[in-house]
């Protein structure tokens, strides 16, 4: 598709993936900043500090997971690990990095982290949905070869992208994007029109996020399978753990008096 949008100078380009992440992040920040519950829970100054910590840890966590998962891409040139325009980021790693670092910050500042995480859980899927559009434009996270019965296959022809060229593939990036926007709508209306206990929203988001990852990964063409785990990728194994933990957490929150 269109992995590069605008040349700046030398090896520096504005990439479509980073652009879509930025668009999603702006929507995420705007809606979260304007949320009345956020205003009651955390000051503007601490909120901006939280955003900086979350953004930094999300970038580091996402990059770390991507590098571990696609180490062959960096084996012969380690310093490219620090070039964000080479390769990409693992969204699952970003989610884990953001949650962990923000938990530490909120706990240190004695702010109810479950209430903040519930607000984050409302809009997190919106950010992810735009990010997956960026994946589609960059050609990463591509799907398996689609058979003749598939009416929604896509053919990548740009050699600068990461997807195999000139063969019909499942557009798994768009599957993930559509799933993310659907999750956003479900979580948004769940939080707006129904009562919930602290922690239910963030774990509901993680539950749906991990479930969509488990299912869509079966259509991915760039998976590395885990030894002794039939047909499961490393990301699926992590997502299964997240799903189980989220489900148990929701049940515990509901039965807790």
Question: Characteristics of this structure?
Answer:
257 residues, mainly alpha, two-stranded antiparallel sheet, 8 helices, 4 strands, 61% helix, globular
Topology:
Layout: E1 4-9, E2 12-15, H1 16-34, H2 36-41, H3 44-69, H4 91-108, H5 113-138, E3 154-155, E4 168-169, H6 172-193, H7 200-216, H8 234-255
Antiparallel strand pairs: 1-2, 3-4
Helix pairs in contact: 1-5, 3-4, 4-5, 5-6, 5-7, 6-7, 7-8
Q: Which structural class is indicated by helix and strand composition?
A: mainly alpha
Count the E strands: 4
Helix content range: 55-70%
Order of helices and strands: EEHHHHHEEHHH
- Largest sheet, order of strands side by side? 1-2
Total helices: the number is 8
Mean pLDDT: 87
Distance between the termini: 52 Å
Provide the β-strand percentage band: 5-15%
The domain tally reads 1
**Which stretches of 5+ consecutive residues score pLDDT under 50?**
none
How would you describe the shape?
globular
Task: Calculate Rg over CA atoms.
Answer: 19 Å
- Quick one: biggest sheet? 2 strands, antiparallel
């Amino acid at each position: 598709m269109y992995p590069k949008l605008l040349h700046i100078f030398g090896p520096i380009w504005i990439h479509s993936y980073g652009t879509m992440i930025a668009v999603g992040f702006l929507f995420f920040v705007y809606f979260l900043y304007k949320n009345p519950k956020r205003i009651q829970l955390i000051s503007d100054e601490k909120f901006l500090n939280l955003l900086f910590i979350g953004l930094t840890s999300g970038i580091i966590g996402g990059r770390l997971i991507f590098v571990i998962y696609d180490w062959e891409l960096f084996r012969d040139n380690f310093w490219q690990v620090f070039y964000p325009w080479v390769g990409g980021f693992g969204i699952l790693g970003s989610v884990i990095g953001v949650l962990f670092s923000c938990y530490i910050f909120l706990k240190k500042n004695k702010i109810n982290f479950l209430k903040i995480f519930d607000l984050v859980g409302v809009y997190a899927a919106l950010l992810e949905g735009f990010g997956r559009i960026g994946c589609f434009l960059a050609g990463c996270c591509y799907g398996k070869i689609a058979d003749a019965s598939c009416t929604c296959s896509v053919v990548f022809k740009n050699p600068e992208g990461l997807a195999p060229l000139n063969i019909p593939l499942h557009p798994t990036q768009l599957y993930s994007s559509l799933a993310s926007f659907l999750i956003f709508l479900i979580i948004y209306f769940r939080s707006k029109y129904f009562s919930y206990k602290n922690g239910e929203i963030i774990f509901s988001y993680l539950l749906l996020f991990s479930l969509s990852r488990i299912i869509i990964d079966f259509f991915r063409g760039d998976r590395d399978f885990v030894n002794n785990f039939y047909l499961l990728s490393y990301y699926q194994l992590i997502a299964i753990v997240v799903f189980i933990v989220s489900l148990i957490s929701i049940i515990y929150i509901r039965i807790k008096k």
